[in-house]
Amino acid sequence: MKQLTINLIPKTSWYKNLRSMFSKEEWDVLRRGYYKKANYVCEICGDSGLNQGFTHPIECHEKWDFSEEGVQKLIRLISLCPMCHKCQHPGLAQINGEFEECVKHYMKVNKVSKEESLEDFKNAFKEWREMNKIKWEINIDIISKLDRD
Prior knowledge:
The chain has a three-stranded mixed β-sheet. It has one domain. By secondary structure, it is an alpha+beta fold. It starts with 17 loop residues before the first helix and ends with a helix. 44% of the residues lie in helices and 13% in strands.
């Protein structure tokens, strides 16, 4: 099983995330708690953005489940290094001219070939196109549990 996966968010859910649902102060408290729990290193690859040329060690990423028809359910928050986080948003990486960096990082973390990496990204975008046909309802019920973990 691959450590680093690709989790694209459908267009109908763009800009609907915890950061936009909470005040800056609430979001900062929540995400910083996760950074501390992760000892300020990536939960996937164990690296830090400081080692990757970034000015910050990690970023907070929302993991969503889309298995229930029409419901996008928050299942957890995860601390990621900036490179693993870029791989979670390959469309944005493409727009920013950083897609090749994502592919290289994906290959390194998962110990796979470039061909296999490109196939995984291709399949993720294919699934994303199907997900875009649905207007997703956001469910963040878990958030009250998250801040008690």
